[in-house]
Design brief:
By secondary structure, the chain is α/β, with parallel strands linked by helices. It has a single domain, classed as Vaccinia Virus protein VP39 (Rossmann fold, 3-Layer(aba) Sandwich). About 30% of the residues lie in helices and about 25% in strands. It has seven helices and seven strands, in the order H-H-E-H-E-H-H-E-E-H-E-H-E-E. A seven-stranded mixed β-sheet has the order 3-2-1-4-5-7-6, sandwiched between helices. Strand 6 and strand 7 form a beta hairpin. The relative contact order is 0.14.
Amino acid sequence: MMKRLRSIVKRLRSLWRGEVLDLDAFSSSQIASKQWLVEKLEECLQSRYTPPEQGYTIWILGGWYSLTNFIMRVRAVVPIRMVRSFDIDPECQPLADRVNKLWEWQDWQFKAETCDVNKLTYAVGTPQVVINSSVEHMDTDQWYKNIPKGMLVVLQANNMPHHDHVRSYETSAELLEFFPMEECLYEGSMDFNYPQYKFKRHMIIGIK
């Protein structure tokens, strides 16, 4: 059994050129949360906006492997010009680019970058949408303060105890209280009940 397990691990490492892929990114709760995010974002965009001629420019903060981009692209409901995914962990960039290779090699319709999202600066019109589905990992709200007024923002956070989480958000209302918006277009929560544990993920979408 151990010999077979080592063989599987070796093949995985070979496929990813030695980079360590965190399979938790593909867990049921992660995928369900991002699918939920994309579906509600599509509804908000379609009900309120006329898409830019070349499609939306979207920034994802704390993007990890940017499965959010992957789901948006595969669903192909709203037009997208480009997506930029930012994460402070340098191991995320090559893996996010690999996961999203179909769009990364086509004139960088997708590109992951390593950076501290608290230091991002915004130019007029770029982006039109900002997504942060990792709010519980952020130890400051400077990243939110930097987002210009009037921009469409999508935020997700949860109340799951975890060594990487610096804050727990018990309700979507609490999330909205910490990150106030000029107009909230969507507010909701999703329950995850597993045999060993359970938690809630909250989401707000609105105009900052």
